[in-house]
């Protein structure tokens, strides 16, 4: 009996896994947020009590409005069969209006791009806290090169363990994150008690005053730093499929409370020390508030928490890409399921590409200060796009006027944050903008390439297998044609009415007649149950043409050659297919013949009659299709006899050209 899914029930174990998977990004924001805010003031000596209280008020209410209200209370309700994230939200609303694909593409690309900076900034910030710390007789180097090297090693190890799945990682990381939140909450509370005036920050009045205060030298652009406190909110929504909304609802109040205490405690320390001599030798306020006898321990836990922050973005990226593949926004990639939870996945291509870009970002920026200057710009775009999609969702769920008011409110807040973050473009934000544009280009090519193809592909490209059944039976029995294979297999997405691509029958009958004793047309259906292993057979009133539908659980390997061999043995015992005794074999009493799989690879035909722009998009789409997961990998045919056949893709109206004979 399978264990009940953690995402379908509320439990202590589920909450711990949630702490380990979901809150890494937003949970490590105290490492760098106050540091960025003090830098905006021009240093500790300029961070006056009013400025500090107002800044903390901005952080508190940003977490309240954006993270708590928008994402936890509203967005988590918009789940697609338990999955969250911008693509899952798009799947719920795409029928409402075609233009909604645009914000989905932009938001998804921006979120994936910003995810390359999150692991770099969080781990670097934590490792920098180790500078000068003593481990017995050993002292961690002050050299930034050592910090960068340590960060790279940690990130490499993190990406290497992804293949083991988020359930295993979450169980290991959950207790660490609980300890992390408890530590920052207690330390924050102890630092807050001597300066309880910091509690004024609970009033939004101080937040608004600070935006226009002379002490705030950067004006509204302070929101660019404040926004760093809530960048993990979108990842929280994306990770819903891994742990379930119930566990997020139960754990968020604890997380929010500990974050608040940490920010208030750092603020109280700043109020006490802004006028002291220590102001000139000031370091990150997060590390300054830690008692000396606990500093090394807390920094080690902070480093572990930073690793977990990276984990949250990586798992969120896997979920986003998987959703995009299902929605035909990205090319097909090999998806593995390390556990029985369908939401817990591993995509090797995404993992290592994300690893490569993250390491490049680390080497390019080198310090957390430079990374903070660039961080958060892309995610403001994602949040704006999510608000647009949420409006469409809410408009069909509640009163349209209420949906409009909610969307306008959050849209206005996020436009202000976006405006404040624009300044980051020149300070390194252009890196994430470039990455966003590259990802967006791939998504747009794949999505609109499919649309162009569907629009121009005529109905004659599909034919009924029934119409050619007799020809296939005759060809199978025609011994004047050399035997191509005993069993010839095509992976065919059979449509209702036995409709398949004409190119498959063209491959069998026209290019060079391929005689086989049995022709197999196989359709694979992936089920929500992890271990389904069933099949359905339509013999089409023959013994030589078989239409097979395989129902495989999402954790099942798609070893099509193994499954087909079992199916043919079942059919032989039932007398539906003739035995295929082999004269030359190493297997005694072998009754199953050889198999050959034919994979059709489409190439754009010169006869295609569409616009030059459409040709460019279709050509790029075909290139992506031929350079991502091939059908050979996808269906587990690496060790099978496979023939790859090029077939022309002809789109648009066909012109008949007639030559004239010259006498």
From TrEMBL:
Question: Where is it located?
Answer: Cell membrane; Membrane
Cellular component per GO?
plasma membrane
Source organism, top-level taxon: Bacteria
Principal location class: membrane
- Where would you find the membrane-spanning parts of this chain? 58-78, 99-124, 144-161, 173-193, 218-237, 249-271, 296-325, 346-367, 373-394, 401-423, 429-448
- Residue limits of the K+ potassium transporter integral membrane domain? 16-461
Q: Which UniProt keywords apply?
A: Cell membrane, Ion transport, Membrane, Potassium, Potassium transport, Symport, Transmembrane, Transmembrane helix, Transport
Single GO term (MF)? symporter activity
Q: Where is the K+ potassium transporter C-terminal domain?
A: 487-642
Membrane topology category = Multi-pass membrane protein
User: Which reaction is recorded as catalysed by this protein?
Assistant: K(+)(in) + H(+)(in) = K(+)(out) + H(+)(out)
Pfam family name, one: K_trans_C
Q: What does this protein do?
A: Transport of potassium into the cell. Likely operates as a K(+):H(+) symporter.
Q: Which family does it belong to?
A: Belongs to the HAK/KUP transporter (TC 2.A.72) family.
Q: Kindly provide the name given to this protein in its UniProt entry.
A: Probable potassium transport system protein Kup
Organism of derivation? Loigolactobacillus coryniformis subsp. torquens DSM 20004 = KCTC 3535
Which gene is this protein's source? kup
């Amino acid at each position: 009996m399978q264990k009940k899914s953690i995402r379908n029930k509320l439990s202590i174990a589920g909450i711990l896994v949630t702490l380990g998977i979901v809150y890494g990004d937003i949970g490590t924001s105290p490492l760098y947020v106050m540091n960025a805010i003090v830098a905006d003031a021009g240093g500790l000596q300029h961070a006056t009590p009013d400025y500090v209280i107002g800044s903390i008020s901005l952080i508190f209410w940003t977490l309240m409005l954006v993270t708590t209200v928008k994402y936890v209370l509203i967005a988590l309700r918009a789940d697609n069969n338990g999955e969250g994230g911008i693509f899952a939200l798009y799947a719920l609303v795409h029928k409402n209006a075609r233009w909604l694909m645009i914000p989905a593409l932009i938001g998804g690309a921006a979120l994936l791009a910003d995810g390359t900076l999150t692991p770099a900034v969080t781990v670097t910030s934590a490792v920098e806290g180790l500078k000068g710390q003593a481990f017995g007789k050993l002292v961690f180097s002050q050299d930034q090169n050592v910090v960068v090297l340590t960060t790279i090693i940690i990130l490499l190890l993190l990406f290497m363990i992804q293949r083991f799945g988020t359930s295993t990682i979450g169980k290991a990381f959950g207790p660490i994150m609980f300890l992390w939140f408890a530590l920052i909450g207690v330390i924050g509370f102890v630092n807050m008690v001597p300066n309880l005036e910091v509690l004024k920050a609970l009033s939004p009045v101080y937040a608004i005053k600070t935006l226009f205060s002379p002490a705030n030298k950067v004006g509204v652009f302070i929101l660019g730093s404040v926004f760093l406190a809530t960048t993990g909110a979108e990842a929280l929504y994306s990770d819903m499929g891994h742990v379930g909304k119930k566990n997020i609802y139960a754990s968020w109040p604890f997380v929010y409370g500990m974050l608040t205490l940490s920010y208030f405690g750092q603020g109280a320390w700043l109020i006490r020390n802004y006028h002291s001599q220590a102001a000139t030798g000031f370091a990150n306020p997060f590390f300054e508030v830690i008692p000396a006898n606990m500093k090394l321990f807390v920094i080690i836990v902070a480093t572990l928490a930073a690793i977990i922050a990276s984990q949250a973005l990586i798992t969120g990226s896997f979920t986003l890409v998987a959703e995009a593949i299902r929605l035909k926004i990205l090319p097909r990639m090999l998806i593995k399921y390390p556990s029985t939870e369908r939401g817990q996945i591993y995509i090797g291509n995404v993992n290592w590409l994300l690893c490569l870009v993250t390491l490049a970002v680390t080497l390019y920026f080198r310090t957390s200060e430079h990374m903070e200057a660039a961080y958060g710009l892309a995610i403001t775009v994602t949040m704006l796009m999510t608000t647009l999609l949420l409006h469409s969702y809410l408009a069909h769920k509640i009163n349209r006027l209420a949906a409009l008011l909610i969307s306008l409110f959050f849209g206005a807040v996020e436009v202000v944050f976006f405006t404040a973050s624009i300044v980051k473009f020149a300070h390194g934000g252009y890196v994430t903008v470039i990455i966003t544009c590259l990802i967006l280009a791939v998504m747009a090519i794949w999505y609109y390439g499919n649309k162009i193809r569907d629009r121009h592909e005529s109905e004659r490209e599909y034919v009924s297998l029934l119409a050619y059944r007799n020809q296939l039976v005759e060809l199978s029995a025609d011994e004047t044609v050399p035997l191509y294979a005993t069993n010839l297999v095509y992976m065919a997405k059979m449509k209702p009415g036995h409709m398949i691509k004409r190119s498959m029958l063209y491959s069998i009958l026209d290019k060079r007649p391929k005689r086989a004793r049995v022709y197999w047309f196989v359709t694979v259906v992936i089920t929500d149950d992890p271990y389904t292993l069933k099949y359905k057979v339509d013999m089409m009133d023959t013994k030589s043409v078989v239409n097979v539908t395989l129902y495989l659980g999402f954790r099942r390997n798609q070893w099509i050659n193994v499954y087909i061999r079992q199916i043919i043995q079942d059919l032989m015992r039932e007398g539906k297919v003739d035995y295929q005794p082999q004269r030359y074999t190493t297997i005694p009493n072998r009754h199953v013949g050889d198999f050959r799989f034919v994979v059709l690879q489409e190439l754009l035909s010169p006869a295609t009659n569409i616009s030059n722009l459409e040709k460019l998009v279709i050509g790029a789409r075909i290139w992506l299709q031929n350079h991502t997961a091939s059908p050979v990998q996808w269906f587990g045919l690496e060790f099978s006899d496979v023939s790859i056949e090029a077939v022309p893709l002809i789109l648009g109206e066909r012109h008949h050209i007639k030559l004239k004979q010259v006498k």
